[in-house]
Specification:
With about 375 residues, the chain is an alpha+beta fold. It has 14 helices and 13 strands.
Length: about 375
């Protein structure tokens, strides 16, 4: 008889926290309960150890997950390929073949997310390269390329580089009488993620705080705030040259910001096998070119912008995949936003797609929606 393995409770807690954060919008409540409570109970009962392979009947699985057998097959199918390997057995009367379940380890889940993020950018580029949209009354098919951060960028023409007003006017020429143009934007995506990561938040809009202190326009306020985040120099020293009112408000913020930038810098240090690099919040690696000199701010910008790109690329593909069924038409991504042509009653569904996708990075982002009519 095989000896029972000791159970790693600490790793199970870490696994559960990761799954709750990453998959709470992808798994139903019964499926989440089964993978967080039922399967660990069966692993301990059968003595196979943490993430060991469990062989059990439908009755045992249902009891472990505190649920009825009805619908259990659908719940197991929901887990398959997402957080666990599942081989559904047959009923006792049909051959007595047990159902096999093995949860993916935490490194496997993280590696899976990394591969999905890379594949999303490649697939999005491929899809967009074969599509066109109406711009200023004429068919438009830009060239598309993937930037280092993972953003998919247009050129010839660079529609993404135009002003928001001119871009909206040009895209609105493709509207039918009852169509609307949606601009769905992750509002203040990078500042929101930064404040989450460093554990320092503001009740006020940080851009507005900077604008008011300097008497700047919104554009210049963003530019100065981004300089604080992504400059080569230590942000705590840059702050010394700012108005005293800002120094008082941002002193703790810049200290924690620089601490986080230093952590990234040391984690992404050069080795013989790997160049200077960082990871997005989905685990995708972004590395410098050979012999390329990068600084802390640049590495931090890759970390942030790459994380947003991973989320937005997944959003674009989900909207594209549902075009035929929903009746909307995806146009293009622009930085932290997407443009879609649809009906006014599509607003809730599109917003839901945007909101659910943020679970991939574990940060809730606000979605701003602008509707443009013909």
């Amino acid at each position: 008889m095989e000896k029972k393995r000791d159970y790693d409770y600490e790793s199970d807690v870490k696994w559960g926290n990761f799954v709750r954060r990453r998959f709470h919008n992808r798994l139903s409540r019964p499926a989440m309960r089964l993978c967080l409570l039922g399967i660990p109970y069966l692993e301990r009962k059968h003595g196979v150890g943490f993430t060991g392979r469990v062989a059990a009947s439908f009755t045992d699985i249902a009891e472990a997950g505190c649920m009825a057998r009805t619908g259990l097959r659908g719940i197991l199918t929901e887990l398959q390929g997402i957080v666990a390997w599942v081989n559904i057995g047959s009923p006792v009367k049909g051959g007595k073949r047990a159902t096999l379940i093995k949860r993916y380890t935490l490194p496997q889940l993280m590696q899976k997310e990394q591969h999905e993020a890379r594949a999303d950018a490649e697939r999005l580029k491929q899809v967009l390269s074969g599509r066109d949209f109406t711009f200023n009354g004429k068919p438009c098919r830009p060239s598309w390329q993937i930037l280092r951060t993972g953003r998919v960028q247009a050129s010839e023409p660079n529609v993404q580089g135009m002003s928001k007003r001119n871009r909206a006017i040009g895209l609105a020429t493709g509207l039918q009488d009852d169509d609307v143009l949606f601009c769905l934007d992750y509002r203040q995506a990078e500042p929101t993620i930064i404040q989450h990561l460093i554990g320092c938040s503001f009740r006020e809009d940080i851009y507005n705080v900077v604008c008011e202190a300097f008497q700047y326009s919104r554009y210049m306020g963003k530019k100065h705030t981004n300089m604080l985040h992504y400059a080569k120099a230590d942000p705590t020293k840059l702050l010394d040259n700012w108005p005293e009112t800002l120094q008082d408000k941002l002193r703790a913020y810049t200290k924690q910001l620089e601490d986080y930038r230093n952590q990234l810098w040391h984690k992404g240090r050069k080795t013989r096998k790997l160049r200077r690099h960082t990871k997005t919040l989905t685990g995708r690696i972004i590395e410098a070119d050979k012999a390329q000199q990068v600084h802390r701010g640049q590495l931090f910008s890759w970390h942030l912008q790459g994380s947003v790109a991973d989320v937005l690329n997944a959003v674009c593909l989900r909207i594209i995949d549902q075009e035929t069924r929903r009746g909307w038409r995806f146009l293009l991504p622009v930085h932290d936003s997407v443009y879609v042509i649809g009906k006014a009653d599509h607003e809730t569904e599109l917003q839901s797609i945007m909101t659910e996708a943020t679970s991939a990075i574990g940060v809730d982002l606000n979605v701003k929606i602008d509707l443009i009519h013909k």
